[in-house]
Amino acid sequence: MKSHTDLNQVKDESTVESPRTRATSRLRIQIPVFVRGHDATGLEFIELTRTLNISAKGACITSAHILRLGQTVHLTIPAPATSSSSLVPSETPPITAKVRRQQTLGDLKIFGLEFLRSLE
Length: 120
Hints:
mainly beta
């Protein structure tokens, strides 16, 4: 198993890009997300995972599933349980994204996603 330091190095290496290649800056924040799609074998899945970083145009996530480059996945951010208030939705609308990058470090699979519609 990799140490916490090793995982930080992976995040640093996988997210460091020059300002010319990145349209918007990414925030290094772990947000729980449900990922729905089909794995590399074609089986449908839904998985609760987390972002490693996120921007208005994309995110970097971990997944236990093997995803194909170019495939589409749907992300949903779970919302906390609420009372009967209509101000807080029970979940966010799905965010559709394409897999643009992948990296494996031991058992950890990391995927770079590009949102089909910007969050801005």
